């Protein structure tokens, strides 16, 4: 197992470093200290052919020009906060609006646009990088001096592990995620239509036209949101269900069942045999099927198109501060926030 470091670019006269985590099975992850961002995953298919299986780029400039959060650590709060307003203990806060009349993914120039301190490490069965960030009190309107960290690691079991920690000196909101877009075919020219998805979730979060949650959890029975059994993503693209038509696919949180010890999500691409299995300590996964991606976005010299990637964003339910039963995302002084998400990669052979 190896962890190596190369110069990736310059940002405000500071060097951006990219770290490569590689195990002995042909699995390789690239992560950079700008946005604590995953830039690439290389993985063999069932025939041993290695390909890039996430949307990313080998050009740092692409990350400055795009705004789709490719592989970024998102925070302080992933997803939309309705009207950018919230209250804690009777104190009212207003965040900048960067998504219509709402705040999305922590507001403008948040975690994904900052340089994180990086600390690579190598252990017997694991290599990784811990990224640290200090977010001052009042950043984008959020209270509290926040110390946050995210650790990326890779082991010999083909597991990409994400471990989050944070502390604050004032009550604040914290609900981070990683915004990786998978395309397990290894070919961005192909959409994720034929990817198969399975979710341990019997309820999904209904959304308004602006993408904010209504607060209702809808039973998946008889809908294109039923992924209890492995199901093709394209079912949602062809659907007349109002929630699918609203976003031309999926851009929805799924409330995880959390029953037993099984995985929370499984994504598979049948032709290549590649499969990723996800488990998380969070109560939700946001599935976004890349509906707004277009040829105006160039990554690594290639124009994108709708549905050429799909996210499995593990987090607490979006806009939880406004909806009872969505989970607690208030972080208080004296408490250590911790969360874990693990993606396991394998190939299914015929």
From TrEMBL:
Catalytic machinery residues: 179 (proton donor), 313 (proton acceptor)
GO process terms (BP): galactose catabolic process via UDP-galactose, Leloir pathway; glucose metabolic process
Domain of life: Bacteria
GO molecular function, one term: aldose 1-epimerase activity
Record has Isomerase as a keyword: yes
Sequence positions that bind beta-D-galactose: 179-181, 251
GO CC list: cytoplasm
UniProt KW keywords: Carbohydrate metabolism, Isomerase
EC number: 5.1.3.3
Chemical reaction(s) catalysed: alpha-D-glucose = beta-D-glucose
Pathway(s) annotated for this protein in UniProt: Carbohydrate metabolism; hexose metabolism
InterPro entries noted in UniProt: Ald1_epimerase_CS, Aldose_1-epimerase, Aldose_1/G6P_1-epimerase, Gal_mutarotase_sf_dom, Galactose_mutarotase-like, GH-type_carb-bd
Entry keyword Isomerase: yes
Gene3D superfamilies tied to this protein: 2.70.98.10
A Pfam family this chain is assigned to: Aldose_epim
Recorded family membership: Belongs to the aldose epimerase family.
Protein name as catalogued: Aldose 1-epimerase
Species, as recorded: Sporolactobacillus laevolacticus DSM 442
